[in-house]
Specification:
With 1015 residues, the chain is α/β, with parallel strands linked by helices. The strands form 6 sheets. The chain has an 8-stranded parallel β-barrel, surrounded by 7 helices. Strands 20-21-22-19-18-24-25 form a 7-stranded mixed beta sheet, with helices on both faces. Bound molecules: flavin-adenine dinucleotide. The site of flavin-adenine dinucleotide (FAD) has 33 residues, from strand 6, strand 7, helix 16, strand 9 and helix 20.
Length: 1015
C-alpha cells in the first residue's frame, strides 16, 4: 500500500563521521549511458509509435480513465486521493448501503480532506438519499474495476478475449486472488489454474489464424498464455525453507505444467515481492529442469539486482539449452518494497529514483537480446516487454535494430484497461501485442485495482505524463540517464538513526548516533540464511545447574551491597559503555546466541533471532538514555536561587527473568539496573539459565573492560521458591525487576511491601505480569491481514509470549453464524491447519514444543476444560500429522466461546485461541476491555472512526491496529501493561530507567549580601 510519505527531513544532528559514511553512499549510477546514434534510433522509433498512438481513434480508454469523476478529483487533490483509495480498498467488505455510506463519510471527513462539490451533498444525505449516494459511489468504483478486470472467471472473460484476438491482440490470463493462507486455498487455486489451462484452449482453437500473434523467429507461439503466482500454489512459500517451499509448490504445479504441455499453453510465472524473488527464480528453474512446458517468467527492473538476475537466467537457459520467455517489467510493488525495507532497517532492494529503474530496464533489455536464441535448438531467452512506456519500448526496438533482429523476435505486453492507443499503434507497427487480462471477483480484485490506480496517478508514471499531462515528445523519450544527473538518493536504512531519532544522539555513547533497532535477519538472503543455519547447528547450550542456595544468594547480595557505593559513583558514561560493549559482543555472535535460544527454549529461527536483536536493542537504547539522568538539570532561571534536579541509583537490584524471552528480557532488566548505577543479582528462569549465563559473561567482560569493581553483577541460577524468594525478601535489596506470572508477581509485590524494623528503605518492584490479549476483527477488516495477524499473534512461539493473542472477537451483525464469522473462521481454521509442527531448529517449523512438560500438562488441562464445557474445537490435534516430539502441542482454536468459558477468562500461555462473537463494535470493545489484564490488544478495521475509538477506548498497554499484537520493538513500541498486567513503566521506553533511580533536588541560595552572580 502506498500510504507513505516519501519525503524525509535530514536530521540536524548528523555527526561528522556519520556524514562521511552517508556521503559515500551517494554513488554514481552503475548503469551505462547511451550513445548519440542509439539515442537517435530510439527517438525515431519512439516518435513513430507515439504519433501512431496519438492519432489512433479506436482506443481512448486511457484518456477516458482520467476523465472519470473519481480519478479527476484524485488527480487534483492529494488528500482526497489518499482517503478515496483507502475507501476503495475497504469497499468490497462493505455489504450494505449503510456501511458504504458510513465508511465514505468517515474517510471523506478525515482531517485535510475536502469532499468535492457533488460528493459533499451525498455525504450529508439521510434516509433514502443515503442509499442513493451509496449506490452512486458503488457504481463508480465497480465501473473503475471493470476497466481493469475482464470478468469474474475465465468463462466470463471469454467474450473479451475473443474480441481482443479479433482486434489483433493476444492475451495472458491472470487469476486475481486473495492471499493464499492455507493448503485448502492453494488447492482451490490449483483447480482454477487447471480449469484455465484445460478449457481456454478449446475456445481459442476456433479463432482465426493470425501470423503476427502466433509466430516468432523460432516458430509457433502458443495462443493461450496463463500467468500464475507461485505464492498462490503454496501457502507456506517461505524463503526461510526454500527446499520444502519448492517441493510443496511442485506438488500442485506439476499437474498444471503437464496439462499446459498437453494443451500447448504457455505458463508464465509472475514476479511478486522481493522477499520471494530468489525463491521464485529457483522455483522457475527447477520447474523447467523437471518439466517440459512453454515457460515464461516475469522479471523486475526496479530491483537493484535486475541486471544480475537477468544474467543468471540467461546463463542458466543457455547452459541447459532451454528456451524461455522473460516478461521484463519495472515492478508493481515499489512503494511496498520501500516501506518494508525501511521498517525492517534493511537496504532497499529497489532503485530510489525512477530514472534508475528505467535505465536498468534498458540494461536488462540488452542482456536479454544478447542471449536471444537465433535458431531452433539453441537455449536462451525470448524477450517480452511488459511496459506502457514508449521510451522503454523504443529502446528495445533500437536494440533489435543494432543486433539485426526482426520485430517478431520480441513481444509487447500491456495491462488490460491501460494504454489502448499504444497497443493498437504497436500492432500497426507489426509487433506481437499481448494483453495481461486479470479475471476474478471484486474482493481480491480490489488490491489489484488499487495498485493500478496508484500506478496511473503516480507523478512518476509515464502514461500519466503521456496521456494526461501531454508532455512533449522529447521529454517523453528522453534518455533516463540524463534525468538523474548521476545523483542517487540515500538509502533510508543508512540514515535511519538520524531520520527517526528514537533517542537524542550522544557523542560519548556507542557510535555517537541516535539509537536504532537492530535489523533482524533477512532469511530471503541465502548468505544470511546459510550462516544462521550453521550457527544453529553448532550451538551448544551451556550447562548450568540451578543450584545456588539461599545462603549463597545472601552472600551475593552482601557483595553487591558492599560495592554499591563505588558503582553508584562510577562515571555514568563508563556505565553506559558496559552496555554498548555488551551489545557489540552480542552483535558479533548474534547467530550463535540465537542458536542457543533456539535450542534452550524451543524458539523457531525468526523468534530466536528477534530475541537476540531485542537484547542488543535494550543495551544500546538504555546506554543512550542513562548518562544524562545523572547530570544535574537546572530548573528555572531564578536569580540568586539555583534549583537543580538529578537522580541516584536505588541500591542492590534483583533481576528475576522469565524463560519466554530468555535473553531479551533478562538482558533488558539487567542492563537497565546496571546502567543506572545499581549493583545487580540476576536470577534467570530455571528453564533457560544457559543463555542467561552467556549474557552474564559478556556483561562481566564489559564490566572488567571499564574497570568496574568485582561484585557489581552476580549470577544466581537457582530455584524461585527458595532462593528467589530469599532474594526478594532480603533487607538490603532496593529494587526488584521481575517479569513472569501474575501469581509470582503478586507474591513479590506483597513480600517487598513488608518493611522490618531494620530495613532502611521501601523496596520498589518493577513488575511485568501476564496478559489475556484480545484482537477484534471488525466488519470492514481486511481478512487477508486479519487471518495472518491473528494466526501469528496466537501461535508464534506456541502462544507463549505475554503479548500473544488468546481471545479473538469477531464482529458480525448477522450473529454467531453470520457470513463474516463463517468466512473468517473458515480461513483462520484452514490457515492454522497449514502450520508446520516440528523441532525449533528446523527452519520449516512454525510451531515447536512448549517450554516443558509441566507447561504442556497445564495447557492440555485447559484444552480438556474447553472440550468438557462443550466448546467447538475448530482446530486441534486431529488436524495435524502425528509427530512424536515431547511437549509438542498442536494449535487449538475453539469457537462457541462465551465470556465465562474457562479458556476465555484464564491465562493459558500456550497455543490455544478462544474465538467469540460480538454483535457490533461497541460489544466488541466492551468484551476486549472486560478482563483484568491490560497488556496488548489488536484491532483489524478499515473504518477510521473505529480506529479513533479503539485508540481512546481499547484500554491496554500496547494497542496494535491492522497488524498482529506481538513483536514490540525497543524505542519504537515501548512495551508493558497495567491492570493485572504490571505495575512498571514500559520496557524499551523513555521513562523505564526512572524506576531504577531516586530523584534528588537541591536548592542553593546563591545570593550573598544582596549580590548574586547572575545579576
Ligand atoms: C503485461 C504485464 C505484466 C506484469 N506483470 C508483473 C509482474 O509479474 N510483477 C510485477 O511486479 N509487475 C508486473 N507488472 C506491472 C508492472 O510492473 C507495472 O505495470 C509497470 O511497472 C509500469 O511500468 P511502465 O514501464 O509501464 O511505466 P513507467 O511509468 O515508465 O514506470 C512506472 C514504474 O516505475 C517504477 N518506479 C516508480 N517510481 C519509482 C521511483 N521513485 N524509483 C524507482 N522506480 C520507480 C515502478 O516500478 C513503477 O511501476 C506487469 C505489467 C505488465 C504490462
Amino acid at each position: 500500500m502506498a500510504w507513505f510519505s516519501r519525503k524525509y527531513k535530514a536530521s540536524t544532528h548528523t555527526p561528522d563521521h556519520v556524514k562521511s559514511v552517508l556521503e559515500a553512499s551517494v554513488r554514481p549510477p552503475v548503469l551505462s549511458s547511451s550513445s548519440p546514434e542509439r539515442e537517435q534510433r530510439i527517438l525515431e522509433a519512439g516518435t513513430h509509435m507515439l504519433d501512431l498512438a496519438r492519432n489512433h481513434k479506436s482506443g481512448l480508454l486511457s484518456k477516458q480513465f482520467y476523465q472519470d469523476k473519481i480519478m479527476d478529483w484524485s488527480m487534483k487533490d492529494h488528500n482526497f486521493k489518499v482517503q478515496m483509495f483507502r475507501f476503495v480498498d475497504a469497499f468490497p467488505a462493505l455489504t450494505t448501503p449503510e456501511m458504504v455510506h458510513d465508511h465514505l463519510v468517515d474517510y471523506m471527513t478525515q482531517p485535510g480532506v475536502k469532499a468535492p462539490p457533488g460528493m459533499d451533498l451525498a455525504l450529508k444525505a439521510g434516509g433514502v438519499a443515503k442509499g442513493l449516494a451509496a449506490k452512486t459511489i458503488s457504481g463508480q468504483i465497480t465501473g473503475m474495476a471493470h476497466n481493469f478486470i475482464a470478468g469474474t472467471d475465465a468463462a466470463d472473460a471469454l467474450p473479451m478475449l475473443t474480441k481482443l484476438w479479433k482486434q489483433g491482440i493476444a492475451f495472458s490470463v491472470d487469476l486475481l486472488g486473495e492471499a493464499c493462507v492455507s493448503n485448502a486455498e492453494a488447492d482451490a487455486y490449483q483447480a482454477k489454474y487447471l480449469d484455465l489451462v484445460e478449457n481456454l484452449v478449446d475456445t481459442a482453437s476456433g479463432w482465426e489464424a493470425n501470423e503476427r500473434l502466433e509466430r516468432d523467429h523460432l516458430g509457433i507461439v502458443p495462443r493461450v498464455n496463463v500467468s500464475i503466482k507461485v505464492s498462490s500454489l503454496c501457502a507456506l512459500f517461505n524463503p526461510i525453507a526454500p527446499e520444502s517451499s519448492i517441493e510443496d509448490f511442485m506438488v500442485r504445479a506439476a499437474p498444471i505444467l503437464e496439462a499446459a504441455k498437453r494443451n500447448g499453453v504457455l505458463i508464465n510465472f509472475d514476479m511478486e515481492h522481493f522477499a520471494f524473488k530468489d525463491l521464485t527464480l529457483d522455483t522457475f528453474m527447477h520447474a523447467c529442469d523437471t518439466h517440459e512446458f512453454e515457460a515464461g517468467l516475469a522479471m523486475q527492473a526496479y530491483l537493484k539486482s535486475g541486471v544480475d538476475d537477468a544474467k543468471l537466467i540467461c546463463e542458466w537457459a543457455q547452459r541447459t539449452g532451454r528456451v524461455v520467455t522473460v516478461r521484463l517489467v519495472k515492478g508493481a510493488y515499489w512503494d511496498f518494497e520501500t516501506i518494508h525495507a525501511e521498517q525492517e532497517g534493511w537496504p532497499c532492494p529497489v532503485w530510489n529514483e525512477k530514472w534508475q529503474t528505467d535505465q536498468c530496464f534498458e540494461e536488462m533489455v540488452k542482456v536479454f537480446l544478447d542471449h536471444c536464441p537465433t535458431k531452433a535448438g539453441e537455449g536462451g531467452v525470448k524477450l517480452a516487454l511488459g511496459s506502457h512506456n514508449v521510451r522503454s519500448i523504443a529502446a528495445a526496438l533500437a536494440g533489435l535494430k543494432e543486433r539485426g533482429l526482426g520485430m517478431e523476435t520480441i513481444e509487447l505486453q500491456m495491462l488490460h484497461g491501460m494504454a489502448d492507443q499504444l497497443k493498437y499503434a504497436a500492432a500497426e507497427m507489426g509487433l506481437r501485442v499481448r494483453e495481461y487480462v486479470p479475471v476474478g471477483e471484486m474482493i481480491p480484485g480490489m488490491a489489484y485495482l488499487v495498485r493500478r490506480l496508484l500506478e496511473n496517478t503516480s507523478n512518476e508514471s509515464w502514461l500519466k505524463a503521456g496521456f494526461l499531462d501531454n508532455a512533449d515528445t522529447a521529454t517523453l523519450l528522453m534518455d533516463p540517464a540524463n534525468k538523474g544527473a548521476g545523483i542517487d538518493k540515500q538509502d533510508l536504512y543508512m540514515i535511519a538513526p538520524e531520520r527517526h531519532e528514537l533517542t537524542p544522539p550522544d557523542e560519548m555513547v556507542g557510535n555517537a548516533r541516535p539509537f536504532y533497532t537492530e535489523p533482524m535477519r533477512d532469511f530471503a538472503d541465502a548468505h544470511q540464511r546459510g550462516m544462521f543455519e550453521q550457527a544453529v547447528k553448532a550451538a551448544v547450550v551451556p550447562e548450568v545447574e540451578n543450584d545456588r542456595t539461599p545462603e549463597q544468594a545472601n552472600e551475593m547480595v552482601a557483595r553487591a551491597h558492599s560495592v554499591f557505593g563505588a558503582w553508584r559513583d562510577f562515571d555514568p558514561y563508563e556505565r553506559a559503555r558496559v552496555l554498548t560493549l555488551t551489545a557489540g559482543m552480542m552483535r558479533a555472535q548474534r547467530d550463535e546466541l540465537a542458536g542457543v535460544v533456539c535450542k534452550e527454549s524451543s524458539k523457531t529461527w525468526r523468534e530466536a533471532d528477534a530475541d537476540v536483536c531485542e537484547a542488543i536493542d535494550f543495551c544500546e537504547y538504555y546506554a543512550r538514555l542513562a548518562p544524562k539522568m545523572f547530570n544535574s538539570h537546572r530548573l528555572g532561571r531564578f536569580i540568586g536561587e539555583l534549583d537543580e534536579l538529578w537522580y541516584q541509583p536505588k541500591g542492590v537490584a534483583v533481576v528475576i527473568s522469565p524463560w519466554n524471552f530468555p535473553l531479551a528480557i533478562c538482558c533488558g532488566m539487567t542492563a537497565a539496573a546496571l546502567v543506572t548505577g545499581n549493583t545487580v543479582v540476576v536470577k534467570p528462569a530455571e528453564q533457560t539459565p544457559g543463555i542467561a549465563k552467556i549474557m552474564f559473561e559478556f556483561m562481566t567482560n564489559a564490566l572488567a573492560q571499564v574497570g568496574a569493581p568485582d561484585g557489581v553483577l552476580q549470577f544466581c541460577p537457582s530455584l524461585g521458591e527458595t532462593t528467589g524468594a530469599a532474594l526478594v525478601r532480603d533487607l538490603r535489596v532496593g529494587v526488584i525487576a521481575f517479569t513472569g506470572s501474575k501469581a509470582v508477581g503478586l507474591d513479590i509485590i506483597e513480600a517487598a511491601a513488608v518493611t522490618p524494623e531494620d530495613q532502611l528503605h521501601v523496596k520498589r518492584v518493577v513488575c511485568e505480569m501476564g496478559g489475556k490479549n484480545a484482537i477484534i476483527v471488525d466488519t470492514s477488516a481486511d481478512l487477508d491481514e486479519a487471518v495472518l495477524g491473528v494466526r501469528y499473534s496466537s501461535f508464534a512461539f506456541q502462544g507463549q509470549k505475554c503479548s500473544a493473542c488468546s481471545r479473538c472477537i469477531v464482529v458480525d451483525p448477522e450473529g454467531p453464524n453470520g457470513q463474516r464469522m463463517r468466512l473468517f473462521l473458515e480461513r483462520l481454521g484452514e490457515a492454522t491447519k497449514t502450520l508446520v509442527l516440528g523441532r525449533a531448529d528446523d527452519p520449516n517449523s512454525d510451531v515447536s514444543p512448549v517450554i516443558d512438560g509441566e507447561a504442556a500438562g497445564n495447557i492440555n488441562r485447559f484444552i480438556e476444560s474447553a472440550r468438557s464445557e462443550g466448546l467447538t474445537e475448530l482446530v486441534g490435534t486431529k488436524d495435524f500429522p502425528e509427530i512424536t516430539i515431547d511437549d509438542l502441542i498442536a494449535p487449538h482454536i475453539f469457537t462457541g466461546v462465551t465470556e465465562t468459558s474457562t479458556i476465555y477468562t484464564q491465562e493459558i500461555f500456550g497455543p490455544v485461541l478462544a474465538v467469540i462473537h460480538a454483535k457490533d463494535f461497541d460489544e466488541a470493545l466492551r468484551m476486549a476491555n472486560g478482563h483484568t489484564y491490560k497488556l496488548t490488544g489488536g484491532i483489524f478495521t478499515r473504518k477510521p472512526t473505529h480506529i479513533d475509538r479503539a485508540k481512546r477506548e481499547f484500554r491496554v498497554g500496547n494497542l496494535y491496529i491492522n497488524r498482529g499484537c506481538t513483536g514490540a520493538l525497543v524505542g519504537r513500541q515501548p512495551f508493558g501493561g497495567f491492570g493485572m498486567s504490571g505495575v512498571g513503566s514500559k520496557a524499551g521506553g523513555p521513562d523505564y530507567l526512572m524506576q531504577f533511580v531516586d530523584p534528588r533536588a537541591c536548592c542553593e541560595n546563591t545570593m550573598r549580601r544582596g549580590f548574586a552572580p547572575e545579576l
